[in-house]
Design brief:
heterodimer; A: mainly alpha; 7 helices; globular; B: mainly alpha; three-stranded antiparallel beta sheet; 6 helices
Chain lengths: 199, 209
């Protein structure tokens, strides 16, 4: 009978694990309704606040305007550098990348919304502030890196296949950012769980 | 590969397949969808009374379909009661405002792990929330259009107009994330199983007792 009991316990353990693994495992810290709702509430509040702050029409010269303008110009500068590395001799004027096409990185398409959503999800997830701060750094780096890839591909599409630009700009990259955002958040939670596991 | 990675990759793959299938440029889909949107929303639009006697509000598919994305746009316009011609208009992108959120919703619902009962309940209940989000996405530009010159049918004020402009941008940015989060909310409040619904133990097919 003893082996049967052991098997039963092992099965029970696997059953418990299977409840918290899988897609649920990506949100493994959210097994109770209270924690789940708290996660959603914090996510909604924070992402709403960040998006509101991003789209707020800051008067020219204020810190908000300078931040968004500076971010767009930094993106253009980095995109220019990456494209030049790959042999495209582009020029950068402020927030505009020019050579075989002319692409301006403006407030409405700077990709900061992905940063906002990812940072909100990381902060909303139940963890310590130390884990959160590392998560925010990870989210910022990943989202900005992904956005640079997005901008580079958009420039290439605009230069070579201009008729496809709107599709990629408005739809394809929006969906790709969403899927990548989910995957990045899942990856961060996975890293977090691996770090927390004893031994 | 752990169960976690398997389930996550299965989820992402299944959701991506649904999204790609829905977003492929199927011939006639855009025109049919925008016409259906016009048909569904026409009673709502028709109930709005404009102050100027010779005008009424109408919603129609975009007449010039030469541009590939024109199929997905509908035109909210003020019309002359006698000539039926449009005077001023605003274009609403029903692909971004309606089709994309529903695509994400269906993709997430389809890709989420079983049990199917929870998925169905969450889908049915949560679709009301999604409709609210989609309605907000359509109403915001409509209110902005009706309050701006030359229509001026609504008096909104500068502060509220600025607020609505921000909301419009936020809705556009959240076209993918908001439906996914609404799905999670529906699943967690309506669905009674654990997160992701993996209450069915696939690792242990039979009980040893």
């Amino acid at each position: 009978m003893a082996p049967a009991k052991l098997t039963a316990e092992a099965t029970h353990d696997r059953s418990e694990e299977s409840r918290t693994e899988g897609l649920g495992g990506a949100l493994g810290g959210l097994r109770e309704t209270g924690a789940r709702l708290r996660f959603l509430l914090v996510f909604w509040a924070l992402s709403g606040a960040l998006l509101f702050a991003h789209h707020y029409p800051y008067p020219q010269g204020t810190w908000g305007d300078r931040f968004v303008t500076g971010y767009c110009q930094a993106c253009a500068w980095l995109v220019g550098g990456i494209l030049r590395t790959f042999g495209d001799p582009v020029l950068v004027y402020g927030d505009t990348v020019v050579h075989s096409a002319r692409m301006s990185i403006t407030k409405d398409c700077d990709g900061l919304e992905l940063v906002g959503f990812l940072v909100s999800a990381v902060v909303a997830f139940p963890s310590t502030w130390k884990e959160r701060s590392r998560g925010v750094a990870f989210a910022l780096a990943a989202a900005i890196g992904l956005n640079l890839v997005r901008l580079c591909t958009l420039y290439v599409i605009l230069a070579r296949w201009p008729s496809l630009f709107e599709f990629f700009h408005v739809q394809a990259w929006q969906v790709l950012s969403f899927v990548a955002g989910l995957a990045l958040f899942g990856a961060w939670v996975r890293i977090l769980r691996a770090e927390r596991r004893p031994g | 590969m752990s169960l976690w990675w398997r389930t996550l990759s299965r989820f992402v793959l299944r959701a991506s397949i649904v999204i790609v299938i829905c977003l492929l440029p199927w011939p006639g889909l855009g025109a049919a969808f925008s016409t259906a949107c016009c048909w569904a929303l026409k009673p709502v639009v028709g109930a709005v009374h404009l102050p100027a006697g010779a005008q009424y509000l109408d919603l129609r598919p975009m007449p010039d379909r030469s541009h590939p994305f024109a199929h997905w746009k509908v035109m909210l316009c003020t019309c002359d009661s006698r000539t039926k011609g449009d005077r001023t208009f605003v274009l609403l992108d029903v692909k971004a405002l309606v089709f994309l959120p529903f695509t994400i919703w269906i993709a997430v619902a389809f890709a989420a792990p079983p049990p199917a009962g929870e998925r169905f309940r969450a889908f049915a209940v949560g679709v009301g929330l999604l409709l609210g989000y989609v309605a907000l996405g359509l109403v915001t530009p409509a209110v902005l259009f009706l309050s701006a010159r030359p229509v001026g049918a609504l008096s909104v004020g500068e502060t509220r107009t600025a607020f609505l402009l921000i909301v419009r941008s936020m809705i556009r940015d959240g076209a993918c994330f908001v439906p996914a989060m609404l799905w999670l909310f529906a699943r967690w409040t309506v669905g009674c199983g654990p997160v992701g619904g993996t209450s069915v133990n696939r690792e242990s097919p039979s009980s040893p007792t």
